[in-house]
Design a protein that fits this description.
Layout: E1 5-11, H1 15-25, E2 33-40, E3 55-56, H2 59-63, E4 70-73, H3 81-90, E5 94-97, H4 100-116, E6 121-122, H5 125-128, H6 134-140, E7 146-152, H7 155-165, H8 170-179, H9 188-191, H10 194-208, E8 218-219, H11 227-235, E9 238-249, E10 252-263, E11 275-282, E12 286-293, H12 297-315, E13 339-349, H13 354-364, E14 369-377, E15 380-387, E16 390-391, H14 392-403, E17 408-417
Parallel strand pairs: 1-2, 1-4, 2-3, 4-5, 5-6, 8-10, 10-17
Antiparallel strand pairs: 7-9, 7-11, 9-10, 11-12, 13-15, 13-16, 13-17, 14-15
Helix pairs in contact: 1-12, 3-4, 4-10, 7-8, 13-14
Length: about 425
């Protein structure tokens, strides 16, 4: 910092990088004085709307410039961004990133590196873009004992599910999401829950001091959802959302991502389109809800600008922005031990004794039925069950055994019910 002006470098000038640079250039100097020193780009010959004198293809020019106070990483992907961030923190430079992949994989390492070098690391945009949820969790709520985090943290999947609730089928909803730019040409990360999984890993670290492995965090996407599932959900006073659930109970910690039937009165049921929301629960705070735009260049840039203001304020204090990370308070609970309620939709032979055989199979595996609806269709019938909560292991065994019964023609859907 010189003459109350903070010198900033930006790594990357893609869609998000360009949005950030534009915001920095136009930032009200009555709020803070920012000077952009360097912009790292991979192709110096590409036409861009910014001063060419700022461009460099050499990261070392930024790393070794002692006048640069703060570096914003918006390159995307893990490499080379991760190594760049580590080098910058080791040099004592403050860093802001929107890269969920890097933070999910190496968040603890990077936070501890920032602490060791008495500098700052911010990544508000890595979880819910324009929703300011991480700063309250890291700072305002650091003294609270958090028991559960539930979130809709992928805008693409929420847009698709909202469209299906309004009458579209999955393929049409996905195609529209791609046309609008909500979904990538290859939508796998969004619709299979992978993007939400990375964000759940970050929230797990911040709220509970646990870093789940990518393989250890159960993940199920939305590709199997059908319009008929929504029709049944509506009849039951529910809707369907892809949620991340992270809880820390006496019997252990677990994080998972999957679609659920959720009561229409729950705060998350009203989150529509590409919006995101995070619900934080704890003994002293009851329930806090953060919601807003969770994707897109402009919301992401807004979160980064918020981090810029925080970082500049913190830089002047000469201290890291991090309190000690939380320490795990319970053992990690396997997904098989998690208890869930299940909505099961089956096509069965319409004959006496079918329900009894299904109920018997469930009972043999310690699963009981909460409610049942049966509707005949000639020689076939549709049977809809909602179970009481039971361990995931028992639910899986039960469903597999039910599928093998001679009177069960097919299991059309099996979706968890949020409780």
């Amino acid at each position: 910092m010189k003459d109350n002006t903070y010198t900033v470098a930006v790594l990357g000038a893609g869609n998000i990088g360009s949005a950030v640079i534009s915001r920095l250039i136009n930032l009200d100097n009555q709020v803070i004085n920012i000077e952009i020193s360097k912009i790292l780009i991979s192709d110096p010959d590409k036409n861009r709307d910014f001063d060419k004198n700022l461009f460099t293809a050499d990261f070392n020019e930024i790393l070794n410039d002692e006048n640069i106070d703060l570096v914003i990483e918006v390159l995307g992907g893990i490499d080379p961004g991760k190594e760049y961030i580590k080098s910058l923190l080791q040099k004592g430079k403050a860093v802001i990133t929107a890269n969920k992949d890097i933070i999910a994989e190496s968040g603890r390492e990077l936070v501890e590196l920032a602490q060791k070098n008495n500098t700052c690391l911010y990544f508000e945009a890595a979880v819910a873009a324009g929703i300011p949820v991480l700063k309250p969790l890291i700072e305002s709520l650091r003294g609270e004992e958090i028991s559960r985090i539930t979130g809709i943290i992928n805008g693409t999947s929420n847009y698709i599910l909202t469209s299906m609730e309004e009458g579209s089928d999955y393929k049409k909803a996905l195609a529209t999401a791609q046309e609008l730019g909500y979904a990538e040409p290859d939508p796998t990360n969004d619709v299979e829950g992978i993007d939400a999984k990375y964000k759940a890993m970050i929230l797990s670290l911040i709220c509970f001091g646990v870093t789940p492995s990518t393989d250890g965090l159960f993940t199920e996407g939305i590709a199997k959802a059908t319009k008929e599932d929504f029709d049944w959900a509506n009849r039951l006073g529910q809707t369907i959302k892809l949620v991340a659930i992270i809880d820390n109970e006496q019997d252990g910690f677990n994080a998972r991502v999957f679609p659920v039937l959720i009561n229409k009165k729950h705060p998350l049921a009203s989150i529509r389109g590409a919006l995101n929301a995070v619900v934080v629960e704890g003994k002293n705070i009851d329930q806090l809800v953060f919601s807003g735009p969770g994707a897109g260049a402009n919301p992401t840039a807004s979160a980064i600008i918020g981090d810029v203001l925080s970082a500049c304020h913190q830089i002047s204090s000469g201290q890291s922005n991090w309190y000690p990370l939380r320490k795990p308070t319970t053992a990690i609970k396997s997904f098989e031990q998690v208890t869930s309620s299940m909505f099961i939709r089956l096509s069965v032979s319409d004959k006496p004794g079918v329900l009894a055989s299904i109920a018997g199979t469930l009972g043999e595996n310690n699963v009981s039925i909460q409610s049942v609806i049966q509707e005949g269709r000639g020689d076939e019938a549709e049977l809809v069950l909602v179970t009481h909560e039971a361990p995931e292991k028992d639910l899986k065994v039960s469903i597999d055994k039910i599928a093998s019964l001679d009177t069960v023609l097919s299991i059309t859907s099996a979706i968890r019910v949020y409780t």
